[in-house]
Recover the amino acids of this structure.
């Protein structure tokens, strides 16, 4: 799904020249298939086959130790009737919206870092990128310390300003946003790299021309950078949305089992984990996973439809 | 052509891995090597001593411990069961016994017990019963734990209150909690954490209620609710931090750092309490205070044998040995947990002379077995999300408990279907 926009983005970024179009010669074709084969096989074995299996299992009930019985659409009925599923779905959409905030943040920082004459760009880039390559477990643990209601740094800072101490991740009214903040913090660097490459691909001539016409930095950003970056933004927003819809690890690490806010922070995937691995309801979990896949597919389709309105391929 | 061989290679790889995994535990030089699945790293040194003693008695058998952390123990075990690589002997708890036994993956032990005269009757009856399913014994307990009331003598002295003892009732606890609470120093009289084994279940039974009886939930029962209210009241009155605070620093951590004067705790944690200098110096423990009734929850781990094991004879020898006096004594003197074999607890008491650990054994008289059914995890997972708000000082424990009762009944009905 993401193959098309990523090549578009890469083209924009000037990273790769457009490959010679597939010639009708069968020899070339064979070679091409051979090159794609490792990926194709990997995709078939690790993605497509499990997908089919999941679809099959969603119509069965699992024995705890293997063996399954056909139950028809029972699992889907359970999924649609369960209140916790709808709650998890709502939470997941909140994560998705918060997660998308990483994009404007990354664009802003990327634009600032691309100023001519700025020194130490590599250092900044690395600093922003480190959270993304840090293990989610480590990220979750460290942020749990920061958020801690009794001795967390964040509360200390808030106290300077006279605000009350809070239990950020165990208060249902703040927990989902606290986790969302960590999500944004840890992914911004990734999109920053993509956007920096995207901005580098915009020809300098445009800027010089605009400067001659008297356009200030803000004007240049909104009339040149943003429109010409739109294919990259499109690619990033799809990746970002899919990733946030699959949020799991941070919740798993940061939310203890006894956390009273657990119902308000549980995502679809963490609910899936609970059903499949703790409650022995693999069939229902498979149905839930399939439902999530349909939602992701639908939202991605919508984004592709909408792209005509705002994405400019120069 | 090439693609096909690649695919075959890909398919064969996991098979090979599985084979090597199995043969690893097999025989090495005429000896039978048993694998023994455990989850508690704190018990490993003590268990190794037991194993050494066993190997001395049975030169042909060696036992290798396979440590899996608690957080992934059951998932790993289930996967290993499906793949046929499960340990020969492994730890079982009350929550999972019926699930495993009803699926036929555990070796029935009743026959062995009879023919070898295994001293099962020397272990607490309430505990042995947990590991029987439909009249067949599937596991033999190795240790047990009950819940006791821990208190901080220094904080009690400061407030000028007599230490808790066997005469205490819930009213005494409430009075003391109120006196001991000092908001300025952020000290609470009690740490009423939402924990099913250490807090919820003992209070429910102490109030005369029940958790599970004849396949029905007791959470909607008036007396059970009274038991839960014992805790939520303390939170509402500010004598205990709310659950939202205890997610971030657990009840026992609050007690260790002397920010909570009292806490209910499982005996298995005594060693960790002993390791905290302040608590070792002026911590105390006694039996649980009396509510409407006297009650505590008893639970303990059992050794079970995998039905798929290929070394059942050796495995049984090991489990039989673990059920005996000698193994129990070695285990108790390691100071980690109370051996369940009658009369072997002295060594455990002596390992921590600062505390009056006898109280944990005195409570056996009225100890209630840890409740369980065929798929315990399903209804136990309903508890914390549903009771969470009430334990965070938001009130509404009555309706929360009733909702929990209804949902639990539905889950229990699902088990029978």
């Amino acid at each position: 799904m993401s193959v098309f926009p990523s090549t578009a983005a890469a083209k924009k970024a000037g990273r790769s020249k457009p490959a010679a179009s597939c010639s009708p010669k069968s020899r070339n074709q064979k070679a091409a298939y051979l090159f794609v084969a490792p990926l194709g096989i990997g995709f078939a074995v690790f993605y497509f086959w499990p997908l089919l299996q999941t679809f099959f299992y969603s119509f069965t009930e699992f024995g705890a130790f293997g063996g399954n019985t056909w139950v028809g659409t029972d699992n889907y009925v359970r999924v649609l009737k369960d209140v916790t599923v709808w709650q998890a779905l709502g939470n997941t959409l909140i994560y998705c919206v918060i997660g998308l905030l990483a994009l404007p943040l990354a664009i802003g920082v990327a634009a600032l870092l691309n100023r001519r004459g700025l020194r130490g760009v590599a250092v900044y880039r690395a600093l922003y990128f480190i959270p993304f390559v840090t293990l989610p477990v480590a990220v979750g643990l460290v942020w749990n310390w920061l958020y801690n209601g009794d001795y967390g740094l964040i509360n200390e800072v808030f106290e300077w300003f006279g605000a009350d101490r809070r239990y950020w991740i165990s208060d249902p009214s703040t927990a989902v946003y606290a986790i969302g903040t960590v999500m944004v913090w840890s992914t911004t660097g990734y999109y920053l790299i993509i956007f920096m490459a995207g901005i580098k691909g915009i020809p300098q001539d445009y800027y010089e021309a605009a400067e001659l016409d008297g356009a200030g930095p803000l004007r240049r950003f909104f009339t040149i950078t943003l429109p010409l970056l739109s294919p990259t933004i499109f690619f990033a927003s799809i990746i970002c949305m899919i990733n946030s819809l699959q949020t799991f690890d941070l919740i798993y690490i940061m939310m203890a089992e006894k956390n009273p806010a657990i119902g308000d922070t549980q995502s679809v995937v963490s609910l899936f984990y609970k059903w499949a691995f703790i409650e022995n309801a693999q069939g229902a979990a498979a149905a839930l996973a399939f439902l999530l896949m349909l939602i992701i597919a639908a939202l991605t389709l919508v984004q592709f439809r909408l792209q005509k309105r705002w994405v400019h391929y120069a | 052509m090439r693609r096909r061989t690649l695919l075959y290679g890909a398919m064969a790889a996991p098979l090979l891995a599985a084979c090597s995994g199995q043969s690893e535990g097999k025989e090495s030089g005429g000896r039978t090597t048993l694998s023994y699945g455990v989850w508690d790293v704190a018990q490993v040194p003590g268990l190794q001593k037991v194993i050494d003693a066993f190997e001395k008695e049975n030169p042909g058998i060696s036992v290798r411990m396979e440590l899996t952390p608690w957080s992934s123990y059951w998932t790993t075990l289930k996967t290993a069961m499906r793949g046929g690589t499960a340990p020969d002997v492994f730890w079982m708890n009350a929550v999972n016994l019926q699930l495993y036994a009803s699926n036929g993956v555990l070796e029935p032990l009743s026959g062995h017990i009879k023919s070898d005269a295994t001293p099962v009757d020397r272990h607490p009856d309430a505990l042995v019963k947990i590991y029987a399913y439909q009249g067949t014994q599937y596991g033999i307990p190795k240790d047990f734990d009950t819940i006791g009331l821990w208190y901080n003598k220094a904080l009690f002295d400061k407030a000028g209150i007599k230490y808790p003892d066997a005469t205490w009732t819930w009213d005494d606890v409430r009075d003391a909690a109120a006196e001991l609470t000092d908001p300025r120093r952020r000290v609470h009289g009690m740490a009423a954490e939402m924990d099913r084994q250490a807090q919820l279940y003992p209070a429910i039974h102490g109030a005369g209620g029940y958790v599970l009886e004849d396949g029905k939930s007791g959470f909607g029962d008036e007396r059970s609710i009274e038991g839960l209210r014992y805790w939520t009241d303390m939170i509402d009155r500010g004598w205990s931090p709310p659950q939202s605070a205890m997610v971030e620093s657990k009840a026992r951590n609050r007690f260790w750092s002397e920010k909570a004067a009292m806490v209910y705790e499982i005996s298995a944690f005594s060693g960790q309490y002993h390791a905290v200098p302040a608590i070792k110096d002026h911590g105390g423990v006694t039996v649980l205070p009396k509510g409407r009734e006297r009650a505590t929850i008893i639970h303990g781990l059992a050794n079970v044998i995998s039905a798929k094991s290929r070394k059942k004879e050796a495995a049984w020898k090991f489990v039989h040995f673990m059920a005996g006096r000698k193994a129990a004594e070695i285990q108790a003197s390691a100071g980690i947990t109370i051996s369940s074999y009658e009369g072997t607890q002295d060594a455990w008491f002596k390992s921590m002379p600062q505390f009056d650990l006898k109280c944990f054994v005195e409570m056996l008289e009225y100890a209630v077995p840890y409740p369980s059914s065929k798929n315990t995890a399903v209804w136990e997972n309903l508890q914390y999300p549903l009771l969470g708000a009430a334990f965070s000082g938001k009130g509404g424990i009555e309706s929360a408990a009733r909702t929990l009762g209804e949902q639990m009944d539905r889950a229990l009905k699902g088990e029978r279907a």
The first strand of chain B starts at residue 32 and ends at 38. Chain B touches chain A through 32 residues (CB under 8 Å). Confidence is low (pLDDT under 50) at residues 1-28 of chain B. Chain B is about 50% helix and 15% strand.
